[in-house]
Amino acid sequence: MAVSSDQETQAAPRSWARRLAPLAVLAVILVLFFVLRLDRYVSFAVLREHREALSRFVQDQGVLAVLLFVAIYVVAVAASLPGGAVLSVAGGFLFGTIAGTLYVVVAATLGATGLFLAAGSAFGDGLRRRMGTLGARMAGELADNAFSYLLVLRLVPLFPFWLVNLVPAVAGVRLRTFVLATFIGIIPGSFVFVSIGSGLGAVFDRGETPDLSIIFSREVLVPLIGLALLALVPVIYRRWRARRHP
C-alpha cells in the first residue's frame, strides 16, 4: 500500500519528536535541577551535616542504598548535572574505596551512555550530513580511532565529561566502542576521587574540606598522561604503517 505525501508530512514531525524526546527529558532535568535549587544539596557541607544519617542508611539498607546511589549518579551524568566529583567522593565515603569505585565507574558509564544515545538519536545523522568536508574528515578520523582517542579523553581531563559524551555520538562512534573506552578510561580518575572519599570522615573531623585539585597534581597527572600516551600507540602505529605502505 502506497504512503501518501500527507501521511509522510504528518509522520516526519512525529519521527523528530521521538528522536528528540530522550534529549528533551535530560534537558528538562537539567533545568529543574537549577530552578529547584537542588545544586545546593550537592556539596561537602551537606555531606558533613548528614554524614551519620547517610552512614546508618547505607548500613541498614545495603542493596537499596547502592541502587539509589547508582541511580542518582546515572541521572546526574546523563543530564550533565554539576557535582560529579562530589558524588564520586561521596561514593568512597559511603561504600569504601573498592566498592565505591565499582559503583561510580558503572554509574558514570551508564549515564554517559544514556547521553550518548540520546544525542546520537537526536542529532547524529543530521549533523554529520551538515558537517562539510572538513567536519566529515574529522568525524571519520575519530570514528576510525575511536577507542584510542576516547581512552585518552577519559584518562586525562582535557574537556568536560559531558562534551566527551556528545562528540562521539555526532561522529558516529559505535556504541560498544564508546561504552568500553568509557568504562576503562574513567577507572583511574574515579579511583582517585573515591579514595579521597574513603578518608573523608577524618577530614571532616579536622573541620576541613577535601582538596579535589589532587587530580591535577604531578603524582596523579603524570601516570594518567603516561597511560594516555600508551593509548595513542595503536593510532601512531597505523599512521606509520600507512606511510610506509601507501
Q: Please give the number of β-strands.
A: 0
Low-pLDDT stretches are none
Mean residue pLDDT: 83
Main sheet properties:
none
The number of distinct helices, counting runs of at least 4 residues, comes to 13
Tell the overall outline: globular
Q: How many separate structural domains?
A: 1
Helix/strand-derived category reads mainly alpha
Description:
This protein has one domain. The chain is mainly α and 246 residues long. The protein is globular. The chain has helices at residues 5-35, 44-49, 51-61, 63-78, 84-95, 97-129, 132-144, 146-155, 161-171, 175-185, 187-198, 200-205, 218-244.
Brief characterization of the structure:
With 246 residues, the chain is mostly helical.
Layout of SSEs?
Elements: H1 5-35, H2 44-49, H3 51-61, H4 63-78, H5 84-95, H6 97-129, H7 132-144, H8 146-155, H9 161-171, H10 175-185, H11 187-198, H12 200-205, H13 218-244
Helix pairs in contact: 1-6, 3-4, 4-5, 4-6, 5-6, 5-11, 6-9, 6-10, 6-11, 8-10, 8-13
Task: Using brief descriptors, characterize the structure shown.
13 helices; 246 residues; 0% strand; single chain; mainly alpha
